[in-house]
Design goal:
With 141 residues, this protein is α/β, with parallel strands linked by helices. The protein is built from seven helices and seven strands; from the N terminus they run ααβαβαββαβαβαβ. The protein has a five-stranded parallel beta sheet with strand order 1-6-5-2-4.
Amino acid sequence: MDQLIEFARDNLILSGIWIALVIMLAYSFIGPLLSKVKRVDNHEATQLINKKDAILLDIRPQKDFKAGHIVGARQIKPEEVREANFSKLEKFKNTPIIVVCAMGNLAAGTANKMVKQGFTEVSVLSGGMNAWQSAGLPVNK
């Protein structure tokens, strides 16, 4: 134990980096648990669509949306997402909404904006359209 304290004292930069990494690692596990936005896989998304009439909100550009989208998905323009303009969805504030992007990364930001505006059940499709298509699930063109 004395050697560990001595090492930390002699190597402040390395010790600081190590502590920062531990904190970031802990946050990466705890952060999603505290978030109001839930991540759903393909199976969970299908269950939400079939049993709770979830709305699919595709935030990809129009070109990508036209190339292929999940059956029944609604497309929202990127500028509306940037401006957090979800007025078209006001009547669905208490309906489950699944936000879809290409890989599941950009959708989280949009979902958080929606939660801040009062949407109660917002989820993100893990893996996005790539995961959906890789699973061989139905796509409209």
